Amino acid sequence: MTHPTGPLAVLLPSWVLALRAEDKSERTVASYSESVQQLDRHLAVLGVSDVDGVRQEHVQGWLVALAETRAPKTVWDRFVGVRLFFRWAAEEDEIRTDPTARQLKIEPVAAIWRPPEPIATRPAAWSRDERAPRDDRASARGAAWW
Description:
Blueprint lengths: L11 H10 L4 H21 L9 H14 L2 H20 L17 H4 L23 H10 L1
């Protein structure tokens, strides 16, 4: 199935070259490229034909559509790839304005991921004093068997 291409497809090869010149891993390049390609297809469906015609609302609409079917971390990762693409395009004077320059209302992964509770707040049953005494000889026998 051939996907429609939008206004970003023209700049994508140059950006991929720039990412490789920065020695980004192939996995990173592939992930960022996929993000831009997904947004590009979204823009094509909307009828956006000029890279300077991409507005913040287009990016936000795409993120909302992604959030309906993807996990928050996936949405965040896609946004990061697109934001870096537009930042590069603005620095290279390929676009007049970066549609992602203003803060978009999207939670970063750090806000989604919650660290484990500190040890002091874990149940008492988890404390070292509550455990059965350790039999070092049994541990040594088990390690020798493996």
